[in-house]
Amino acid sequence: MSTAPLRSAMVPVTRRIRAYFAPFNPVTQTPTLFDPGKYGMFSLSAPPAPWVDLGWIDSFERYCDTSTQPLRSGPPGAPAAMSRGYLDVRIEFEFREWGKLQMALACGSEHMNVLASVPTANAQPSGGTPLPSVAVLAGSTASNIIVGAGSVGGFSAGNIVAVDDDYQQQVGYVGTGIAAAYVSNPADVNRDANYIRRVTFNVARVAQVTATSLLLAQPLLGGAPPAGAAVQQVVAFVDREGGSFFQNWSALFVAEEESGGRVCFHYPWLSPTTALPRYVKINESSTAAGSSKPLQREEEVEILKPISSLALRAAFQAMPHVDENDGQTVVCYRSYFPASMAAVY
């Protein structure tokens, strides 16, 4: 009797795909790399640092328009070899959860924290003059923001806070740990001392207020606040259509192993792009011109009429990465962890 593994175990079966993102350094063009040999079959609810779990996604689609061209030789011009042309790889999907990072990735440009405003502030779509910031004291960590006994009274459990430096009229990328925006001219941001906290990814919700500290429900994405940082309350997040700044991130998408093996798609560098022109029919029986419409950036996902959830549509261009093992320029790594005792071919 044969003891060979059943070939059915070679079929990856999944229900959902989970998205993880990690910082990309645009100054040095250094990505966060996922090493399948190092991290293996990690727990989906506890990704290795600094990967951030952004929840389950839907409508995950990978597009490849990379060209291949034959090299011809001889009188008949017969193909003698093949060469690969320009790399053009894109992905699209829908976030089913909304948060600071999900919104930033979907909009693709600067993402703003709406700082709590003074009552007399002039109305601004991305937030007006904020309440004064509170200095962060030495000894603070990514989860424990020390402000002192005289300042904790300005915060309550449940508040969202932004923790980062004052803007000091520097040019270049700003934001602790993660590039949140690029300033070319201090005048563009009105030399606003609060500007970095308006865009920073160093945000979190206050879980508890102690006699001197704000204890955070989740650690700050950008890490511990730098010396001289300050904290301000955030009342909402806002993004905008347009803008010249491009988000850059490393990404990992995991097809959970319902049965069979796990499949991972690792993109060292993703940059936002326009979604492909996808169309749906307004009326299935209609064939007249104008009977279709482009899909929206926010999709309504019906729960039970008239209740629907809103899904965030995101689209990215895969940017090149040079693999250190052989110097090849690639844009995506697809790894497969076979199920236990499955055949390997």
What does this structure look like?
The protein is mostly beta strands and 345 residues long. It folds into two domains: 7-73 and 80-108 and 246-337; 111-239, no CATH class. The protein is 5% helix and 39% strand. It contains three helices and 23 strands. Strand 10 and strand 11 form a beta hairpin. The relative contact order is 0.21. Residues 279-295 have low confidence and may be disordered.
Short synopsis of the structure:
This protein is 5% helix and 39% strand. It is mainly beta.
Shape: globular
What would you report as the Rg, rounded to the nearest angstrom?
24 Å
Low-confidence stretches: 279-295
| Proportion in helices | under 10%
Mean model confidence by pLDDT = 89
Q: Helices, strands, pairings?
A:
Blueprint: E1 17-23, H1 36-39, E2 52-64, E3 68-73, E4 78-84, E5 89-95, H2 100-107, E6 111-115, E7 134-135, E8 144-146, E9 160-164, E10 172-174, E11 181-183, H3 195-199, E12 203-209, E13 213-216, E14 230-239, E15 249-255, E16 262-272, E17 279-281, E18 292-294, E19 298-304, E20 307-318, E21 321-322, E22 329-330, E23 333-337
Antiparallel strand pairs: 1-2, 1-15, 2-5, 3-4, 5-20, 6-14, 7-14, 8-13, 9-12, 9-14, 10-11, 12-13, 15-16, 16-20, 16-23, 17-18, 19-20, 21-22
